[in-house]
Design a protein that fits this description.
CATH class of the largest domain: Alpha Beta
CATH architecture of the largest domain: 3-Layer(aba) Sandwich
Distance between the termini: 32 Å
Number of helices: 17
Low-confidence stretches: 1-10
Bound molecules: NADPH dihydro-nicotinamide-adenine-dinucleotide phosphate
Strand order of the largest sheet: 4-3-2-1-5-6-7
Helix content: 40-55%
Shape: globular
Mean pLDDT: 96
Structural class: alpha/beta
Radius of gyration: 20 Å
CATH topology of the largest domain: Rossmann fold
CATH superfamily of the largest domain: NAD(P)-binding Rossmann-like Domain
Amino acid sequence: MSKSSSAGTPLESLKGAPKSISVLGASGSVGDSALDIIAGSPDRYQVNALSANRNVEKLARAAIASGARFAVVADESCYGDLKQALAGHDIEVGAGSDAVEEAAARPADIVIGAIVGAAGICPTLAALKAGNQVALANKEALVCAGDLVMAEAARLGKPILPVDSEHSAIFQVYERDNRDEISEIVLTASGGPFRTWDKEAIASASIEQALTHPNFSMGSKITIDSASMMNKGLELIEAHHLYGLPSDRLKVVVHPQQIIHGLVAYSDGSLLAQLGAPDMRIPVAHCLAWPERAPANTDRISLVEIAQFTFEAPDSERFPCLRLARLALETGGSLPNILNAANEIAVAAFLAGEIAFGGIARLVEAVMDDFMRRGETGAAGNVSDVLALDQSARAVARGMLR
Ligand code: NDP
């Protein structure tokens, strides 16, 4: 049930007028980066709609500070609190998943998809179906429903702008006119907090240890995914959808400094890379200004101070989630969706202290095996099938946890 009212929101993409930006997942870590870039250039960007799940206080603060027109919480039980927090302000309020989709669909120049997890699938599709360009951080939407999302973007005729730093790097050095000469794409990985740990130590790592990312401060789900390297696995699947390359031409290289974010190798032997500080505001700024570039108050690097870049091969033996994601990518069909659902349940269980860190990969593998054994990994033809399978994989994962 949506509780939003529906006053129209005019699109302000007239030449010279600020671009109107909606931020889904505005109360999160990527949401913070987005709102910071927007606030830094009020002449260029203006907030349209903002959404959160339950964090009413942060959403209301952001909506008031940014002059948003529409603020939405996904959790309907938070409607009254949000309404109260925004009383006296000229900001429409909505609640429920329909309202989040409405926020996504309101006319905007760019919708930033920064919801975490499969909850971002429908809002991403709603934004595209309404004709809005999407800047996507929510990699799970591509992992679970990549074919559907890419088909909508193609129909719209506007590329998905990647917010994920690796995919943004690739986007920036991807020569569209020479796409046939691309031999491979390389995603860099920090290696996470357990890069140098042995397998047994990783398996029994604590929540606090797993939440300590060496370079980035991010939401808890992606931080755990980075520690298990599932994040890099999800990014391989994301890159496959964004850039259309098969698994054997998508490579991962561990680069602990995380200054080089992604590379594209061409048939003439050239390797083009994008470098920058590990600061999510940089890819966000790139998306918002695209196809132009605009000044942004982001972190800078000194190559002389960094002095050394190092690279290592990833180790799927110590980080089995990377192997599982590769398997899901290569098997295709719905296996990436199943992998993602099982991983979301496993990460939540780890953060709740219900399973050990090593249990994350074990649970994901067991759920994938279960679906493969039953032959239930065929491609989903529509979003209802994607969501049904997501729910079914979550139920199997929860059953195994019990
Ligand atoms: P956070 O956990 O910090 O924020 C998640 C956002 O999604 C919050 O606004 C949250 O609302 C909202 N949300 C959570 N559940 C739901 C739901 N069921 N329905 C609607 N909204 C919901 O995550 P991050 O910002 O770290 O990550 C967001 C996405 O971006 C993820 O897909 C991640 O993989 C990707 N990403 C993140 C990077 C980073 O640096 N953080 C880098 C690259 C990609 P509430 O606060 O109310 O819970």
